[in-house]
Fold this protein.
Amino acid sequence: MRIAVFSARPYDRHSLDQANKAAAAGQRVQFLYNEATLDSRTAALADGCDGVCVFVNDRLDAPVLQTLHELGVSAIVLRCAGFNNVDLATAQRLGFFVARVPAYSPEAVAEHTLALVMTLNRHTHRAYNRVREGNFMLNGLLGRTLHGKTVGIVGTGKIGLATARIFKGMGCRLLGHDPYPSPAFQAIGEDVELDELLARSDIVSLHCPLTAQTEHLINDVSLSRMKPGAMLVNTSRGGLVDTGAVIRALKSRHLGHVAIDVYEQESELFFQDRSGEIIDDDVFQRLMTFPNVLVTGHQGFFTAEALEEIAQTTLANLGHFTAGTPCPNCVT
Ligand code: NAI
């Protein structure tokens, strides 16, 4: 079986090759690696392949799916949990097998969420630079003690729960909001409506998937309901947040801090070295001017353990596709 891997970086090659080597002979596949992101211009690279292996910013909209279908591709394996980048209705109509990696390491994303909160709160990123330049002044580095603060978790699924458990260990009070409340979360926190969560939380952390219902869940209105000076954290999907509204809330000083690992227009920027170029995205550039904003480039998942799990599950998903057996990770 030949699989065209898109958005392939050296670490993807390494983990997929390792998993392939460790697999039983009958389960091995031939991976053809492409650095390019999958879109209508690059879909032809899958010519002669049975499947494509894709990541968060590969675009599997109706025209791309149609091209893949015409090329004879019939399997789509996602190296991620979210599948908002796949037009599922079209994929279903064209008979694609679509499978994802539902949980590779919820703790990896939860720990990165905490890393963002702790860095932004105690300004360790600024302190690091200052100390290296021999500046030991503390002005501007004042943080808040997190013990006793209220953290609102929007989406108390696997990552939300893992995040909540870490905050609980730090002595924080927990509020959660989820249309499907989780008993495991209820054992450590209180389930409330979204408006109440926004009004009572010192930190609001987003962990729900991006769907038609959750797109721009954080907008001018929801931001105005947040506590003045609160911190907004998004390690889920960029589209949950209206970035223009966040900039307005930062400029008005209503929003205290923003930490994001995902950004609505990230497909133009993230996972690429753009350091020598002029970045045209004025919204992103404005966001980067605030001293109380911290951005990382979608690295929440990026641990050795998670990469290993992603590669192994991807091979297992392909095994189900080949054998025609029911795949627990199918989304079509
Ligand atoms: P999950 O499916 O275990 O949990 C998501 C939860 O969100 C579910 O309990 C669901 O009921 C809830 N939810 C759905 N609609 C909601 C709404 N309107 N309001 C509040 N809650 C709602 O998924 P998991 O594994 O916890 O992942 C969450 C998200 O994290 C993924 O959808 C993905 O977008 C993102 N993610 C980000 C990564 C990164 O590297 N930054 C890596 C992996 C996932």
Observations:
- The chain has a mean pLDDT of 97.
- Residues 81-82, 103, 106, 109, 154-160, 177-180, 207-210, 213-214, 235-237, 261-262, 298, 300-301 surround NAI (CB under 6 Å).
- Residues 304-323 form the longest helix (20 residues).
- Residues 2-104+303-323 form a domain with the Rossmann fold fold (CATH 3.40.50.720).
